[in-house]
Amino acid sequence: MKRHTLILSTAALAAGLLTGCEEQQITPTEQPAAPSQAETPASVDLSAKPTLKMDVDVAGTTATVRFETTSFKLSPEHYSGAHIPGEGHIHLFVDGSPSRIGVKEHTHELTGLAKGKHTLEASLHTNNHQAYNVQDQIEFEIK
Question: pTM for this structure?
Fold first, then answer.
């Protein structure tokens, strides 16, 4: 009986970890548990939908990815913290991998990439990892 309980507990924990970050999506008009306007970054226009655009520079086996956002502030100081409207971070996926990279700055370097074509997918997320439903995708080649 104890073994079945352990297996079920482990399975439930694994399912929670796999789905935890992608369960809910929000839009700028559906902000969960919004703090006061005073806590919103002054440089962010909450009336506009955030945007995300990636650009990649390749040098050898390294790709330097630059992220441009509008109506959105990258906030490494609040990563995994409480939701603040208009700020958060980027989830970056390389070549369709289910593992994500949490990007907190406007530039991220990928090193040691294999030769060939690569695809990057990125999406904006709140500080507490809810999706803003804003994505971008780009392809590049390591020669």
Answer: 0.71
